[in-house]
Design a protein that fits this description.
Blueprint (H helix, E strand, L loop, with lengths): L14 H9 L14 H13 L12 H13 L44 E2 H13 L5 E5 L4 H7 L10 E6 L7 H19 L2 E2 L8 E2 L9 E4 L13 E2 L2 H5 L7
Parallel strand pairs: 4-5
Antiparallel strand pairs: 1-7, 2-3, 3-6, 5-6
Length: about 250
């Protein structure tokens, strides 16, 4: 069933549920398993309450909820120019190299997986949109998006997080704000993401969105999907442009 062709509610399964789970990744968040269970219902209720302003959220995705999700995308377009790899060698989103190849001693661990994924994971960008919606008075930008193996070698980096699995989010400081205020703001944003998006600080739990702690990312917010199982990191979940991120479909319900 295509996304937008039926009302979605608890008990349903399908690819349209996967798409819903992905688009609401910043509202609690759950697995992209296509099973509309209690976790997905919580996502919907969180979105209906926090974004749509409903005092009694139903947890049912009706036409109004579908249209509100489209509105979220329209209000917060993603600038992919900020996400492209700066190496000047790859396409901007890697060369698709090193699938199944790991750094020595890290076989089977995603944090050591050298694969250059074909774009940025859509889940993390939809989750970023939720952050922007929760803080509409803050101006956000992406300070880092894709960094391919060429760029990593050039800069002496070994991390593969930015092979499509992570973004770094920065904020524009108001006049008079300094580093201390920047540190405080980023800590507050991480706390918000833990509360509202079910993100974790660090990488202890599987299948959770992760945030770098403040000792690693003091004045920016690093958001990644490194701890997701490989079935949630399939190529189809990655995008290279706004059309691929939004995947707008007619809402027929």
């Amino acid at each position: 069933m295509a996304y937008g062709d039926r009302v979605l509610q608890q008990g349903l399964k399908g690819d349209d549920v996967v798409e819903l789970q992905l688009r609401l990744a910043g509202y609690r968040g759950t697995l992209l398993d296509g099973d509309f269970g209690s976790g997905t219902e919580l996502q919907v209720k969180s979105f209906q309450r926090d974004y749509m302003g409903l005092s009694a959220p139903s947890g049912v995705v009706d036409r109004a909820t579908f249209l509100a999700i489209d509105e979220l995308a329209s209000r917060f377009p993603i600038d992919f120019a900020q996400l492209r790899c700066p190496c000047g060698v790859c396409t901007g989103f890697g060369q698709g190299r090193f699938r199944g190849r790991y750094m020595p001693g890290g076989e089977g661990q995603e944090k050591f997986h050298r694969y250059e994924y074909p774009g940025i994971h859509r889940l993390i960008l939809w989750a970023a949109r939720a952050l922007f919606a929760y803080q509409p008075n803050i101006r956000f930008s992406f300070s880092s998006g894709y960094r391919c193996a060429v760029e990593n070698e050039r800069k002496g980096r070994t991390t593969t997080n930015h092979h499509g699995k992570a973004v770094d989010i920065d904020t524009v400081l108001a006049p008079g704000m300094g580093k201390r205020e920047d540190l405080e703001r980023c800590n507050a944003l991480r706390s918000l993401l833990v509360e509202k998006s079910n993100a974790q600080i660090g990488w202890l739990a599987r299948n959770r969105k992760s945030l770098e702690p403040s000792d690693i990312a003091p004045t920016w917010v690093h958001y990644d999907v490194r701890e997701y199982e490989s079935k949630y990191l399939r190529d189809e979940f990655f995008c290279r442009d706004l059309a691929g991120l939004d995947r707008r479909l007619p809402i027929t319900v």
